Amino acid sequence: MTELKTINKIIGATTIGLNIFIYIPWTWEIIMTGGGNEGWGLIFLPTTFAFHLFIITGMFSFLDNERLDKKIFKTTLLSIWFLLSLITLINFGWIATLVMAIVIIIFFSLIGLTVHRKLNIEKSILITNSVGSLGMLATQLLLNL
Known about the structure:
It is built from six helices and no strands. The chain is mostly helical.
């Protein structure tokens, strides 16, 4: 197994783990309580839904390159990046941070570079899972401050 594939699996597993143990329970709690006492938790729902999309890209990191090169996986991955870009644009309208703008640019760049075969699918998934994991960890750290 190549070194890139090993790193991809580690970051993919981290992304899936963060979702399972932190963000899925948090989303469930927000929905069940109607956003908390004053409904402020509803503001974070687009963010948590965006983080749930990283479960799929995390699972993709465990697939072989030959399998990932099939049209169905590429189409699914491009759709996920497009949805992540749109959700991040919505969040950018609410939060308006430079980090959100950079994430939007990254996802749209990944779409373009992968479509034009400037970036192979394994590296694209690694970048996606890295951005997702870092985003989830940063959000969790900011909320704990």
